UniProtKB/TrEMBL annotation:
Keywords: Hydrolase, Metal-binding, Pyridine nucleotide biosynthesis. The lineage of its organism: Bacteria, Bacillati, Mycoplasmatota, Mollicutes, Entomoplasmatales. It comes from Spiroplasma chinense. One of its GO terms (biological process) is pyridine nucleotide biosynthetic process. It holds the Pfam family Isochorismatase. Coiled coil: none annotated. Residues 8-158 form the Isochorismatase-like domain. This is nicotinamidase.
Length: 160
């Protein structure tokens, strides 16, 4: 447990289906963020600051597939995070319930510990957010961080 306030890095949905040109919901130039995100993760690790990854983790019949092509289906290549999982202190799976979509990493999913509780437990008062996709999951995570009382910044050069 930390005894001072600190900031955390939240890497949003850097997954195969979004970041790889062969992914089912590929976001243009998503693959170009990898080196910069890895560098930022390394910076946080070297300074003993927490790193959080969020990920879509959809069942095969998820409600978002009415709007979007099927993507990030649980236990498939498309759902794989394209970063070293050992570098994350906490991984948030979202969109896990069939009839409830979730863009934000702060939305409670099943019985997992809510992200805001995990961050507060680790004395985090500020977050930096990066990843995919800025207009949807990155922005929703940023907005919810603010709603939960965290100082929040989007790292503009590390979003698409």
């Amino acid at each position: 447990m930390y005894n001072y306030f600190m900031k955390a890095l939240i890497v949003v949905d850097y997954q195969y289906d979004f970041a790889d040109p062969k992914g089912s919901l590929y976001w243009p130039e998503g693959e170009t963020l990898k080196d910069g995100i890895e560098k930022k993760v390394k910076e946080y690790r070297e300074n003993n600051l927490p790193v959080v990854y969020t990920m879509d983790w959809h069942p095969e019949n998820h409600c978002s597939f009415d709007i979007w092509p099927p993507h990030c289906v649980q236990n498939t290549r498309g759902a794989e995070i394209l970063l070293d999982l050992n570098q994350a202190d906490y991984i948030v799976k979202k969109g896990v319930e069939v009839d409830w979509d979730s863009y934000s990493g702060f939305n409670r999913q099943s019985d997992a510990q809510p992200l805001e509780d995990w961050l507060k437990e680790h004395n985090v008062d500020e977050v930096e957010v990066c990843g995919l996709v800025k207009q949807y999951c990155v922005d929703a995570t940023y907005q919810d961080a603010l709603k939960h009382g965290f100082k929040a910044t989007i790292i503009e050069e590390l979003v698409k």
